[in-house]
Amino acid sequence: MKLSVLIPVYNEVNTLEEAIRRVRNVQLPKEIIVVDDGSSDGSRELLNRLAMEAKPGNDSLNELKVYFQPTNQGKGAAIRSALSHVTGEIVIIQDADLEYDPQDYMRLLEPILSGKADVVFGTRFYGGGPHRVFFFWHYVGNQLLTLLSNILTNLNLTDMEVGYKVFKTEVLRHIEIKSNRFGFEPEITLKVAKQKCRVYEVPISYHGRTYAEGKKITWKDGFVTLYALIRFWLKD
Question: 162-173, pLDDT tens digit by residue?
Answer without folding.
Answer: 999 999 999 999
